[in-house]
Amino acid sequence: MLIGAHVRDDDPVGAAAELGADVVQFFLSDPQGWKKPPTHPMAERLRTGDVTVVVHSPYVVNIASPNNRIRIPSRKLVVQHAIAAAEVGAIGLVVHGGHVTQADDPAVGFENWRKFLSRQQDDGGFAVPILIENTAGGERAMARRFDALARLWDAVGEFDVGFCLDTCHAFAAGEDLGDVVDRAKSITGRIDLVHLNNSRDEFGSARDRHANIEGGTIAPDQLAAVAAAAGAPVVLETPTEGQAADIAFLRERLGR
């Protein structure tokens, strides 16, 4: 099992060495911006190196949005980031499920995802796999509660899209972590990546505030159990100062 963390984007190779990480995740551009990602200065080292790479798309991306001024730029940005992710040898591009507004039927958001993936498939597909991530809050979110996730996968499952399971997000959404892996796999058929994060807030809070493995409201051994059951690469998006300890804890619990 690969274990690593979300790291600074300026020197992911150095960050991996400092943490002893098998896998690193990072942004290729401003996570709150709409600009096309530039070529990463360490692209060749990342592409040819021993560390597994994951890229996270900007937070502004919302493929589900009924608003053309958000949805169309989001589509463009995902395609651009997938190309840039391939340049650094990434195994996938993480994209949040997105949401529609309170005035919209969620069915519109599911259909917008289907249209995007269908059109891109007709254009030759993506440069790297797209990994849709479950999210923590929002009543009209596409991938917050697992009943919505099931509707989303009904719309997109035929396109071989991947899934990223975030433990903090699932906990905040009110999803029981005891059987979360089995339930996620029963819907998506797969888990390609785990964002293994503890939560600063209580179960069902709808708040996306990450904590270190031994510093939150989720039992650390429960997080380790999720990682073991998922059998996928693990990326810690926990506070930086505790990431080395988080990795050590997981390796000890998982026999890595």
Automatic annotation (TrEMBL):
PROSITE patterns: AP_NUCLEASE_F2_2, AP_NUCLEASE_F2_4. InterPro entries: AP_endonuc_2, AP_endonuc_F2_Zn_BS, Xyl_isomerase-like_sf, Xyl_isomerase-like_TIM-brl. It comes from the Bacteria. Its EC number is 3.1.21.2. The keyword DNA-binding does not apply. It is an enzyme of class 3 (hydrolase). Residues 15-252 form the Xylose isomerase-like TIM barrel domain. This is Deoxyribonuclease IV. The keyword Signal does not apply. Belongs to the AP endonuclease 2 family.
